[in-house]
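Design a sequence for this backbone.
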């Protein structure tokens, strides 16, 4: 055991938490070792259970048992260290943190004094000449210090024992009578106490910063976990939807093939009946033909005359002139089958959109309109939830945030990350604009509503003409007129989507957008058009249906 411990360094027997030799060492599942009390107390005060060394996270707190092998090694090392320390103490060896003798070779003994003239530190043995030789007795000896050259004033060759608060440097006594005369001078110890207090504040600030970053780490990990859950749920939903669609395609294909084959079988069965009936008539006609031929060659005149009436005319047969086996027509069968699939797909899309709408509605935010941005002709409700156009231009401060020409207004809330959703009642209006805009957009004079100019919106014009103001305007084909419009934004994904809330229909999506600054909800009730468009835009709370 002793030989083995000599091959190991001191650091290998130190707990990384208390920095002392292991006491009841235990091992974590990741392989690192700590004092049992140290790691237990660490986990008791920590918000999570993870290894202090490698930061591996444990879902459940590990059951810790003392590692007897490491415990025995640590005990042996402790005995060896104590024995070595006792030996060094007898020889006055310099311990860590103590000033060693500059003259000693090999094992450095502890210095008793430092000489400001020789700029060296001496142990008891090597200090003896300074106590014996007359010329050395005049040297100034001080308690041992490290880096003697750095502790001496280079100008006066005296010890730096004072601090100039005015110039923020260490000085000697002679400096106070020359370059630092009339400056604010204090003893080094006094200034050190001040600096220690400042260091305490700095350390507290650093600890606070560390804690904030630990919280941020947990926030990021939680985001990753939620993202993973979303991904798994989305994969499961996609598998279910596409499996259902593939089953519908296979079922539609099987039904179409079955119908075609059944129709063909009916045609073949009808043809077989006709052929059998024709073959029977042919057999009868061939028999009659044989009888006629035999009679025509008979020499028995009486027999010929008696039989002639029954054989002189062909036997009664079916008139096959109008009989046809019609080719089955499959024109439109594939189209009808595909149309059925389209209907199935449409139903699945409706279900998906309903689920999508419920999902984005979870990111609802409480918005109010910002009166400082409203055009002077706009009328805002007291609660900041409604806006409409009025004929009278109010006398308002012409601040830079206000729209000066277009009847627009921003929401008070801005967003520079994450996802948000809100709904606006547009019922009764013949014109309106809704969407989001960058903080830096032009609000003076005429504005251009497109992404190039910082706007992502949809609008209604001429009562039933819906458009998305993309780089090139996109006409929206909607089956019904939206009464309530939902707006959803995913800042990081660069997505802005508009929904017809009541019909659960996606009106339009801007995707692949690059947002680099704050976004504000944007509203424009447009002009009231002589009262035809006097209804307000109303920010409404989300109605979460079961």
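Sequence:
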């Amino acid at each position: 055991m002793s030989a083995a411990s000599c091959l190991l360094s001191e650091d290998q027997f130190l707990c990384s938490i208390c920095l002392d030799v292991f006491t009841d060492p235990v091992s974590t599942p990741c392989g690192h070792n700590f004092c049992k009390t140290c790691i237990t107390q660490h986990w008791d005060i920590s918000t999570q259970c993870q290894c202090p060394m490698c930061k591996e996270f444990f879902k459940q707190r590990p059951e810790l048992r003392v590692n007897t092998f490491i415990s025995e090694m640590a005990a042996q090392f402790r005995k060896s260290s104590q024995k070595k320390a006792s030996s060094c103490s007898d020889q006055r060896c310099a311990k860590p943190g103590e000033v060693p003798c500059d003259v000693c070779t090999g094992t450095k003994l502890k210095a008793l004094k430092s000489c400001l003239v020789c700029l060296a530190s001496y142990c008891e043995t090597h200090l003896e000449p300074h106590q014996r030789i007359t010329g050395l007795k005049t040297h100034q000896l001080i308690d041992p210090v490290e880096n003697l050259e750095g502790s001496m004033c280079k100008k006066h060759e005296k010890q730096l024992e004072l601090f100039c608060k005015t110039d923020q440097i260490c000085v000697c006594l002679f400096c106070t009578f020359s370059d630092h005369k009339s400056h604010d001078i204090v003893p080094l110890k006094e200034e050190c106490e001040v600096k220690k207090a400042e260091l305490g504040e700095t350390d507290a600030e650093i600890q606070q910063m560390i804690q904030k970053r630990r919280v941020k780490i947990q926030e990021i990990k939680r985001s990753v976990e939620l993202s993973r859950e979303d991904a798994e749920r989305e994969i499961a939903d996609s598998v279910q939807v596409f499996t259902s669609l593939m089953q519908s395609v296979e079922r539609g294909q099987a039904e179409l093939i079955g119908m075609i084959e059944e129709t063909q079988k009916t045609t073949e069965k009808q043809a077989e009946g006709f052929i059998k009936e024709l073959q029977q008539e042919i057999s009868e006609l061939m028999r009659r033909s044989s009888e006629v031929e035999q009679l025509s060659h008979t020499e028995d005149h009486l027999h010929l005359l008696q039989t002639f009436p029954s054989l002189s005319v062909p036997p009664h047969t079916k008139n096959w002139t109008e009989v046809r086996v019609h080719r089955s027509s499959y024109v439109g069968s594939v189209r009808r089958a595909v149309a059925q699939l389209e209907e199935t797909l449409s139903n699945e899309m409706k279900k998906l959109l309903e689920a999508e709408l419920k999902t984005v509605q979870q990111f609802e935010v409480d918005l109010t309109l910002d009166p400082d941005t409203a055009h002077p002709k706009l009328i805002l409700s007291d609660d900041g939830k409604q806006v409409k156009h009025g004929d009278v231009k109010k006398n308002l401060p012409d601040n830079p945030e206000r729209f000066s020409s277009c009847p627009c207004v921003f929401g008070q809330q801005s967003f520079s990350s994450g996802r948000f959703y809100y709904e606006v009642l547009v019922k009764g209006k013949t014109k309106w604009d809704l969407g989001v805009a960058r903080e830096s957009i032009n609000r003076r004079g005429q504005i251009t509503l497109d992404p190039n100019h910082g706007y992502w919106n949809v609008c209604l014009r001429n009562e039933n003409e819906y458009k998305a103001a993309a780089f090139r305007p996109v006409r929206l084909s909607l089956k019904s007129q939206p009464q309530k419009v939902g707006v959803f934004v995913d800042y990081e994904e660069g997505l802005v989507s508009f929904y017809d809330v009541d019909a659960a229909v996606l009106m339009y999506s801007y995707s692949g957008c690059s947002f680099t600054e704050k976004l504000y909800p944007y509203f424009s009730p447009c002009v009231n058009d002589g009262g035809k468009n006097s209804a307000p835009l109303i920010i409404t709370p989300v109605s979460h249906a079961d």
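Residues 489 and 496 are 5 Å apart (CA to CA).
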